[in-house]
């Protein structure tokens, strides 16, 4: 990688490092994290650590802190244990689902239709979002780390807007899935959405906000964006493509049940993600301590204690039936 700089979320410039410099920083994060249980050590592949470093502009201490908080969250929330039957009721209307096609870069595509929100439970909505994110990652092609969001605004109205749910969504994606979003296409958003976007945008780091593209079906430049990203023969008709199949809950349920069967193998040492691990690195137990009895991580190196899941400990509470999850990433202090 050539030296230089490009814009970053923190100071306007993102560090551009050589491969050797990147590896040095990855090893330093791994040393600070120390020894981990099997599932967490598999999660912490070199590519995973690199994503956290990228999210923090290659700042080792900030990336390590962010990763520790994610590890605590994964121990408590257990996203890899969520199964289709746990969230099937949230999926019935097709408000979020994984497309059968990928983009031209080989990235998984998640389709979102906020107007089809069918739940009043913030907790349930977030759990389904986490399931969809884990499923999209499960189906990434080898060598791919990011996904595409296609957000369809057909039927969207003011009742579908919820800053509270958007903040929850933003927190999860920003803090628990850094650098997983390649691009988010906002397809035919109505005019009244623009003020809402201005409210949501400050929750996002500039690097993330720049991944959000407004696309309109009657605009030639927008059409080119879609044609550059997708094979139009396999893109859904709703997004200007030629695939008229659409969403069917019964077909989709079967797809997800089959995917669920792949999850245990995904979280074993045989999975390719674990090949980059370096177990010979020293274990900094004073930095992060594993209590195998309680299944929790206690953090002794940070000056301040952080809630392992400040956003996801939201109780099920009533929100308007149309409340949705539209935003991409955001701040963990949003609530």
From TrEMBL:
In what residue span(s) does the CRAL-TRIO domain sit?
A: 84-247
Q: Where is this region: Disordered?
A: 1-20, 295-335
List, alphabetically, the SUPFAM superfamilies matched. Answer: CRAL/TRIO domain, CRAL/TRIO N-terminal domain
Q: Which InterPro entries match?
A: CRAL-TRIO_dom, CRAL-TRIO_dom_sf, CRAL/TRIO_N_dom, CRAL/TRIO_N_dom_sf, PI_Transfer_CRAL-TRIO
**Where are stretches of biased composition, namely Polar residues?**
1-11, 326-335
Molecular functions (GO terms)? phosphatidylinositol transfer activity
The record's listing under Pfam families reads: CRAL_TRIO (PF00650), CRAL_TRIO_N (PF03765)
Q: What name appears for this protein in its UniProt entry?
A: CRAL-TRIO domain-containing protein
